[in-house]
């Protein structure tokens, strides 16, 4: 997870990176919820 994020940061503008970060966090939270429901 860490390496791709660093790669994204290198070529994306700061604002866009922040927006993507929130999206990623939301998606990760949703996936965690899904995993909890399954498991």
Automatic annotation (TrEMBL):
Top-level taxonomic group = Eukaryota
Q: Where is this region: Disordered?
A: 1-39
Query: Where does the record place Basic and acidic residues bias?
Result: 15-25
PANTHER family for this protein = RUBREDOXIN-LIKE SUPERFAMILY PROTEIN
Q: Could you identify this protein by its name?
A: Uncharacterized protein
Species the sequence originates in = Nymphaea colorata (pocket water lily)
């Amino acid at each position: 997870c860490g390496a791709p994020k660093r790669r994204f940061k290198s070529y994306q503008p700061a604002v866009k990176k922040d927006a993507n970060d929130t999206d990623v966090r939301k998606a990760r939270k949703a996936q965690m919820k899904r995993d909890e429901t399954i498991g």
